[in-house]
Amino acid sequence: MGLFSFGGSKSKSSSNSNSRTFVDPNQAPYRQDLMRQASQLNAEGMPVEGVAGINPRLGSALGQANRLGNMQARGGANLMANGAGQTRGTGMALNYANQAMGGNALGGIGTAIGTGLNYAGRTASANAALGGGVNSGMANNMATSASLMNSAQNMGANLNQARGIGGLAASSGAAQNAGFNQNNLGNYINNDVLQGQINASTRDIFRDLNENQMTGIASQAAGTGNSGSSRAGVMAGIAQRGANDRAADVSAQMRGQAYNTALGIEANRANQNASMQQQTNLANQNALNSMMSQGVGVAAQTASENAGFNQAANQTNAAAQNQLRGQGYQIGANQIDSNLNRQQQTNLSNQGAYNSALATGANLGAGQYNTNLQNQQFGASMAQDIGRQGVSNMMQGQAMANTGVGLSQGSGQYLRDYEQQLLNNQYQRQMSPFNSLNFYNQIVGAPNNLSNASASSKGSSKSISMGFGGG
User: Fold this and answer.
1) Which residue, among 306, 319, 308, 307, has the nearest Cα to 149 in the 3D structure?
2) Rounded to an integer, what distance in angstroms lies between the CA atom of residue 344 and that of residue 340?
3) Helices and strands counted in the chain (H then E)
4) Measured distance CA(375)–CA(98) in Å, rounded
5) N or C: which end of the chain has fewer CB within 10 A?
6) Residues 6 or more apart in contact with residue 283 via CB below 8 angstroms
7) Distance of CA 471 to the CA centre of its chain
């Protein structure tokens, strides 16, 4: 009897996935409209601000001002020439006065003054008998000889040494810590150890998000045929946001605890430093004051003794010196008194003769001088009146011309300002599309990018088996 057997097996499987990112369909038309309008405005070009020109009225006023300026310059030159001509009148007046001073009158004044001076010089030829006067050198030598004694002195206490003693008592310093350090606060809340603890505390949050929630959302969407839908994307975003919020809460709580601990440590350090510094300063100041007080007392006592020695010696020297100097000056004073009496009598006699001779010549010269002065004043006054009238006329003409030019120029400037205002308004209208597009862009906002994903899987299996057997 025969044996027969037959078997077979077949298997097939396939899988694919895709994903894409796109702008929110609700926002895309507005973004395209923005690009279209921006391209159109860019092709047309940006508007340019206009600048108003000089209108005919303003140009005429400026030209007239230039012409009047030239006229004023020429008028000023003419005025200077006229003034130079007017000085000839003053010269004529001065020449008239000089001629009046010549002739016999001037010769008479010279003769009178010369005769008076000659006579006065002869009468003052007698000299008075004079003594030697005060001999200051002799008196000072006598006084110096009596003042050679020096007072006994001690050097007194050295105040700098007293200050040095006080300084030594205050040289100790307080033990200090660093105090409140703001940088340490940052080190407490930003370090590798704390960051490692935060990462460990939030590891389960993100593991649950990626391994459970996200896969569950994707599986549910695939099971209902909604893979890549906006609803699935929203659910994934909410899950992601929730995980981020929980992680941020854990991080903020842990860093806040570390910050509060750091504040307590740094505050205690600053308080300790202030207390130790204050105690040390008080001890140093007490020691300094005590040593300085002792040094100043010694210096004061020594200075008092030294002043007494100096005063006694100075009084003795001054008495002897003044006595001898007084004797020397008394001798000189007697000689001066005798000399002054003789000199005064001689000077009075000489001065009387001298003044009498000069008086005659001075009276003649004063009369002639007054006449000359009147002639000079007349000529100068006449020239000044002529020049003043010319200057007044020029100033009046200049004021009238400047007023007219100012009114004309102001009218032209008003028209130019109005033209500039129109140009500014035109520029604002031309800029309106650009400003509107900028406002439109702010309303639409930045592109809102979305994404979707899809996945599919197929499987197949087949098996056949046949067998016969006999015995």
Assistant:
1) 319
2) 6
3) 10, 2
4) 9
5) C
6) 172
7) 123
Reduce the DSSP state of residue 62 to 3 states and report it.
helix
Residue 160: which of 285, 291, 295 has the closest Cα? 295
Measure the CA–CA gap between 408 and 397, rounded to whole angstroms.
17
Find the length of the chain. Answer: 471
pLDDT in tens, 14-51: 777 777 787 888 888 988 898 999 999 899 888 888 89
Helix (H) or strand (E) holding 470: none
| Greatest extent of the chain over all pairs of C-alpha atoms, in Å | 200
Which residues, at least 6 apart from 31, have a Cβ–Cβ distance to it below 8 Å? Answer: 23, 444, 447
161-176 mean pLDDT? 59
Q: In sequence order, what are the residues at sequence separation of 6 or more whose Cβ sits closer than 8 angstroms to the Cβ of residue 231?
A: 221
| pLDDT, tens digit, 9 for 90 and up, residues 324-377 | 677 777 776 676 667 677 777 777 776 776 677 667 666 665 666 566 666 666
Q: Which secondary structure element, helix H or strand E, spans residue 462, and what is its range?
A: strand 449-468
- 41/441 Cα distance (integer angstroms): 14
Nearest-angstrom CA–CA distance, 209 and 242: 9
Percent of the chain with pLDDT over 90: 8
Whole-number mean pLDDT of the chain?
75
401's tokens: 């011309």
Per-domain boundaries in the chain? 104-424
Q: Which residues contact 336 (CB under 8 A, 6 or more apart)?
A: 131, 133, 134
Contacts 24+ apart (CB under 8 A), 230-233: 230/450, 230/452, 232/452, 233/450, 233/451, 233/452
The structure's pTM equals: 0.29
> Rounded CA gap, 15 and 454, in Å?
11
DSSP state, residue 445? -
Q: What is the mean pLDDT of residues 255-261?
A: 88
Cβ density class 48-76: b for 16+ within 10 Å, e for less: eeeebeebebbeebeeebeebeeeeeeee
Structure token digits, residue 249? 């809460």
DSSP 124: T
C-beta separation of 164 from 347 below 8 A: no
Question: Which pLDDT belongs to residue 223?
Answer: 82
Q: Dihedral angle at the C-alpha atoms of 190, 195, 198, 204, nearest 10 degrees?
A: 150
Residue given tokens 């004079």 in the structure block: 130
